[in-house]
Specification:
Radius of gyration: 23 Å
Oligomer: single chain
Helix content: 10-25%
Shape: globular
Largest sheet: 8 strands, antiparallel
Number of helices: 1
Number of strands: 15
Length: 183
């Protein structure tokens, strides 16, 4: 009996590890097509996809399944449209790097996440601070993957004003200088 339970658990673990990899295999062989949002799409109360953001997904009857984090996420089919591109213009399909090659980082509301198109309409908005897998691309840039599309991730830099210890006195007035420190 213990062997059966151990075997079943082993099989379940293999499926849990292999299932997310279905969405990280070659897009053409898995039936993934390129789409764009036609309305703002809320992704798990973490991000919102703006209209005209491109991503890969697999169409089912009433929804589109896309790669999201280490798994997948379903989007209502009426909020997307198939995109048409020539092969040279088509956004490149991104295979997820090997498991464990990411850092789970907190992405905050002030951070920036944008696609390689880098125009303002091709970005993600951050709805709430949350953790998400962040990878580094071949140039050392922080990247997240949604819908097998790379989005560059930049943390906001906090600037804190502090008083400088050196106060100057000129003509009876005290002048205090402030300096910027980046956190």
């Amino acid at each position: 009996m213990k062997r059966k339970i151990a075997f079943i658990i082993s099989v379940l673990l293999v499926f849990l590890v292999a299932l997310p990899q279905v969405f990280s295999a070659n897009g053409e062989s898995e039936g993934l097509e390129i789409f764009h949002a036609t309305t703002v799409i809320n992704l798990n109360d973490q991000f919102s996809l703006n209209p005209n953001v491109y991503f890969y997904g697999k169409e089912n009857d009433y929804e589109l399944e896309i790669q999201y984090g280490g798994g997948e996420f379903s989007i209502p089919i009426e909020s997307v449209q198939k995109a048409e591109f020539s092969d040279t213009e088509k956004p490149s399909y991104q295979t997820l790097p090997p498991e464990g090659s990411y850092a789970l980082k907190t992405i905050d509301e002030g951070d920036t996440v944008y696609s390689t198109n880098s125009s303002p309409e091709h970005k993600l908005d951050i709805i709430s601070s949350s953790e998400y897998p962040v990878y580094q691309d071949e140039n050392g840039e922080n990247v997240i993957y949604i819908g097998n599309t790379a989005f560059f991730y930049e943390e906001k830099e906090d600037i804190v004003m502090t008083e400088d210890d050196s106060s100057k006195t000129t003509g009876g007035e005290t002048e205090t200088t402030t300096t910027e420190e980046q956190l």
